[in-house]
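User: Hey, my collaborator sent me this sequence without any context and asked if I could get a structure. I don't really work with proteins. Can you help?
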Amino acid sequence: MGCITKHYLNESTILGVWKIEEDIDTLLNMVVFDQADSKKYKVFASTSRKLEFLSVRALLAELIGSDARIVYNRSNKPFLKDGSRFISISHSNKLTSILLSKDEKVGIDLEYMSGNIASIAFKFLNRKEKITDEPEKRKYHLYLHWCAKEALYKICDKEGINFRKNITIEPFEVKDSGEIRGSVLTSRINESFDLFYTRYDNYSIVWTKKNYDKA
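Assistant: No problem. I've predicted the 3D structure and written it out in structure-token form, which is a compact way to encode the shape of the chain:
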């Protein structure tokens, strides 16, 4: 299927989502590797990891062109090689997402809602956070909290952040799509963020962005 959404959040920020329905050969024909890409791709043994890698490059090419290249720092945080945009990437099961911005830091996370997330909720929820008692919404609500915290973790550069202790998601009414308010508090960070969420089939998707001078 390829790119299922290419959404401009503002004049400098774009969100894309790719649904992986292609085989490896099809995706290989859709991307152009440089030497670094080829070296990294050859390391992957599993088909699923190869598909993830290729779908990210295919989606990036769809969003901003085939010349764009992704590099990673020591913490495995992605950057564009030319430094032209901030980037955040997420993939789960058959979906890949990329959030790009010329002037805002970004964070995105998507999750396929298959696991028993309630069994590990104590690891990432704190006492200030509230989950609905409605059985048909509870799992989705938990996944939204997890995705929101992942997105905040990414936008804050993954530096010494504990999901339960350092990130708080303010109570919100769960809908198919909406807005969330979250905060990150550590010895180095004291910031609040607006987050946005949506549901696609059995996936939850949450993203955030903030002006670089303020983040």
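In plain terms: The CA atoms of residues 20 and 194 lie 29 Å apart. You can pass these tokens on to your collaborator as they are.
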